[in-house]
Structures
1.
Amino acid sequence: MNRRTGLLLIAVLIVIIGVYAITQVQRARETGGLLQALHSTDHGKAMKAMAALRDRGKSIEGQLVANMQSGNDQVRWRSAVLLASVNTAGSRTALRDALADTYDDVRMDAALALGKLGDKGAADSLALMASNPDEAVPVRTAAVRALTLLRSGPHLPELAELANARPPVYPEGEEPEELPADETLLLRQTAVMGIGVLGVAADDEVASRTMNSANRGAPTAGGAAMQVLSESASMDLEPDAEVRATACAAIGDLADGVGTEEMAGQALKRLIRCLDDDADVVRIAAIHALKQVSPPDAMMGQVDAAMQKAAADDQYWVRDAVGSLEG
């Protein structure tokens, strides 16, 4: 390589380094502007900033952690959301501390972030939050979602208790003139969904503490979870059709995850009964859940007969669900 070529290569290298340095300075300035936008009263502007900051993770961790001590409620919850993409000891500590924040949205987003980060060390605090009747329902619901993301089997009993806390089902013609608002509907539905996951993850030692509404447990965690879900799928016990539909889906997940013939049999019996539910959304959910469960040989005839009956349902979308599965 002659001297001229060498000088040319050096010049090119200097240009590359200079461009890189300028780019980094510009990015740092941009990041600073985006972090400042977290303080904006313009929610749209703040949300755009959050979207742009999500991929900057560890480079902004220090500022996000510092933001969790801000006196601005909006800054704290926005920072909690962003910390869900920063899986470090510092971010997890800040989020755990935020579970005691005075602002509902901060506690809610901190709970969800801890679930997304897989911080099982926060599970006990999340379970207490989920079970606290004085806590805001959206915050409790977020804590249940976090426990589900963590697959926190030891907390199956807490979710069972939440699923059992349902309004009464009134006989036809005996409903009060004004039904009270079902304020824990979403919490109950989220707990039911989580039971389908935690019932697979839990050790059997929690079975004796996982009760249905009649205070009956089961020898195994999966069996105890199935008892609770079977009640949540019943028109006689659960007044809300969306919760019953969710219970059908959770029954399918539980039976599929446990994978035993005994569990499959229990699941199929309940799902077949759900095909007689008054709400088409429940019947559709039951059909899809039946597809998940491998029937024991002794029950194949029952399942086929139930599906044939569903194929003649009065509602088009129920028939369509059967047809889509067969296709």
Note: Residues 209 and 215 are 9 Å apart (CA to CA).
2.
Amino acid sequence: MIARAALIMTAALAVTGCGSPPAPRPAPTAASRFNAEGLRRLERGDLAGAEGMLRDALREAELVDDLPGQAEAYSNLGALAAQRGDRDGALVMHTAALRAHLAAGAGTAGEARARTNLGGALMALGRRDEARAELTRALSVSESLGDARVGLTARVGLATLALSTSAEEAERLARDASALARRLGDDAALASALVAEGVAREARGDREGARGRYAEALDLDKRREDPGAVADDLGRLSQVEESLGNRAGAASLSARRSRVLRRMGRLGDARTAMDRAAALATGRDAAAYSVEAEALREAARGAPSSAAPASSSAGP
């Protein structure tokens, strides 16, 4: 449960790279343009391209002592490190982002976002008490500002932390966060809260309820055009369908997840998801998924594939 909780929080923070949308800035700067492009590439799975853009953003921000710009670049580099599985690197970057925000002035929305990200990085490392302290502080700052939107992702983080100790408490906190996100019209935070609530419901044995929450999160993430979140949602739905005995539905969802991951360039993960689809399916569907899995294996090895990924061979 702890590992799953950390993954949920990582996904929540990766939505913007800053825990919640950055505050509007008077005019685009060189750093903000590089940050925006880096974040766009990060969301599309172009990790190398994202890193180049974000390093450029950091350079431009340092050239003119733009502390918020530096903090944003560090936050996005932290999200990049998390996607690469470099948890220690993510912690270093989010710590640097908080330091930059504090240098610009404490008690700001930027500080709240940075503490939220830092809490997520600490959670991923299993440092739960430190994570809770940062998330609680982020929520406190947002409340002092009278800005509920800034504290939304911290609320999701606290719900996620509760998953490893009390499914009931986690569900309550996630439900509160989702209600607030609905009122504020924050689809990114709402999707993350729905996932946390879904995991809590699964832990209580309410798989049907979990499926409903995951399906709603998927609809939101599709609308937001966030491929990483869509892939995660499809994976959760596939698992819950399998637990409900719907192997064909689980196979279809896993195959759809594989195709998203393939387009993101995550060929190893795509192959694993397609292998799972083939194992769950029967008959022609199983054979078609196996062809796609083999094409992904060849692509991952860098060899020309004699069987191009047959996205339409088995349907969705």
Note: Residues 14-22, 303-314 have pLDDT under 50 and may be disordered.
